[in-house]
Amino acid sequence: MRRLLMIYLVMINVLSFFIMGLDKVKAKKQRYRISENTLLFIALIGGSLGSYLAMYCFHHKTKHIKFYMGIPLILFIQILIYCFYFYTKF
């Protein structure tokens, strides 16, 4: 089960990084954008690390409070949950 969770986390974080980059490209070309709710949802379901890295790699959404405060908060909470899950025996 833990192995599947690790695979999921890698995949969702790669996806979130890619989607943030895609949204940045769309923003530069003034095309239809990916909604902020979608970007935050992907971070919430496990893609917070990918979203956080993409924000600073692409300089995207770094001035929006719900991103520069929300993504690190989600990441922090998820790290606590993962540490509890991976380092406790039950």
TrEMBL record:
It comes from the Bacteria. One of its GO terms (molecular function) is nucleic acid binding. InterPro entries: Cold_shock_CspA, DUF1294. Pfam families: DUF1294. The lineage of its organism: Bacteria, Bacillati, Bacillota, Erysipelotrichia, Erysipelotrichales. This is DUF1294 domain-containing protein. The keyword Transmembrane helix applies. Keywords: Membrane, Transmembrane, Transmembrane helix. The chain crosses the membrane at residues 6-25, 37-55, 67-87. The keyword Transferase does not apply.
